[in-house]
Amino acid sequence: MYIIIVGGGRVGYYLARALLNEGHEILIVEQNAHFCDTINEEMGSICVRGDGCEAATLSEVGTGRADMLVAVTGDDADNMVACQVAKHKFNVPRTIARIRNPKNEMLFKKLGIDVTVSATNIIMEAIEKEVPTHPLTHLLTRSDNGAGNCGDKNPPRLKDHW
Amino acid sequence: MRIVIMGCGRVGAQIAGLLEGEDHDITILDIDAYSFRRLPPDFNGTALLGNGIDEDVLKRAGIEEADVFVAMTQGDNRNVMAAQIAKHIFNVPRVISRIYDPLRQELYDTLGIEAFSPTTIFAELVRDKLKS
To answer: Which domain CATH number covers B17?
Structure first.
């Protein structure tokens, strides 16, 4: 697949690495020249310097033939616009946006952005899974009788217990 | 009319002053309290500190009862995001946004935001001035 990543910060960097390893064709659009140089030195020339929200930049990197655009800058508004430009100007089939403010999830869905990823929501879900919403309920008290019998040569028969 | 303006820069502050003079109910938002110095001294509307791309801030600004929302910050993407929140989440009847980038302006105009690009307008203005 041809995947365009908007934002070459940490998320974009590691995402590109992982996707390259899986054999995809990757292109990163990043505004910061220093980040661009690092990526290009380490992963080959896969980073173009520019504004990923600008139709002109997206046209330059062949967004018209992209299968997917992933916007992972640190700014929700930038990610939203990059996805909308990709969708409406270049008909990219799938767009994914990283969001910082979980409240933006509904807006992004309404605007037709296919997937939103919010670190806050993911961590919240993990916490909810780990921490029960109800306090632990006391069911029965375990008697200490027989607690040490596990390795005994002559374990007591059940009827001895009852 | 109830009008919410996001961004109290030179343009935002001037719009607030003009419209208030026409008896509209104005709330103006900015993320920097220092920006409110630009409002006319006799401004009687509401100046609210906060970020217009946050739904809660927009609610505090009275977006739910607003007839018009105007996005006038320096950032195209911020303007467009706030404008779309106003339109799609709060169903504000008229949403106007400044978008410097002419290509983005065209796109969002087709997506139902009344967008205008100062870049295009000024370029044409200068050309027309030279013609006359």
So the answer is: 3.40.50.720
